[in-house]
């Protein structure tokens, strides 16, 4: 197993030497955790925004009922439009 790990490390080092962007990739690896933390915060904020928009539109199980596919008289489609509009508006505030 040690031989395989050494071989992989050797290939990595060769590629790094040949790659003009090696420093960029190394910095990206170094900053990965910081960006992951930012992503978690953004996901939480976006989820809260969408949930608030769904509360305002009073989304319920009846909005997820079947449809003819044409969108005529489709409560879910109208509610989705309202949620999307509200979520985008909240994004701009």
How would you portray this structure in words?
This protein is mainly alpha-helical and 93 residues long. It has one domain. Helices cover 75% and strands 0% of the residues. It has helices spanning 2-18, 22-56, 75-92. Helix 2 (22-56) packs across helix 3 (75-92). The longest helix has 35 residues, at 22-56. The mean pLDDT is 77.
Properties at a glance:
elongated; 3 helices; 93 residues; mainly alpha
The gist of it:
Helix content is 75%, strand content 0%.
Radius of gyration, CA atoms, in whole angstroms: 24 Å
Shape: elongated
Estimated helix fraction: over 70%
Q: Number of folding domains?
A: 1
What is the mean pLDDT?
A: 77
Structural class: mainly alpha
* Oligomeric description of these chains: single chain
From the N-terminal CA to the C-terminal CA, the straight-line distance is 55 Å
Count the helices. How many? Answer: 3
N to C succession of SSEs: HHH
Regions with little confidence, pLDDT below 50 for 5+ residues: none
Q: Let me know the largest β-sheet.
A: none
Strand content: under 5%
- The tally of beta strands, per DSSP, is 0
């Amino acid at each position: 197993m040690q031989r395989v790990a050494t071989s992989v490390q050797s290939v990595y080092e060769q590629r790094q030497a040949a790659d003009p962007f090696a420093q960029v990739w190394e910095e990206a690896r170094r900053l990965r955790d910081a960006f992951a933390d930012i992503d978690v915060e953004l996901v939480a904020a976006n989820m809260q925004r969408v949930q608030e928009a769904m509360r305002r539109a009073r989304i319920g199980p009846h909005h997820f009922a079947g449809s003819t596919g044409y969108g005529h008289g489709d409560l879910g489609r109208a509610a989705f439009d309202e949620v999307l509009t509200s979520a985008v508006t909240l994004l701009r505030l």
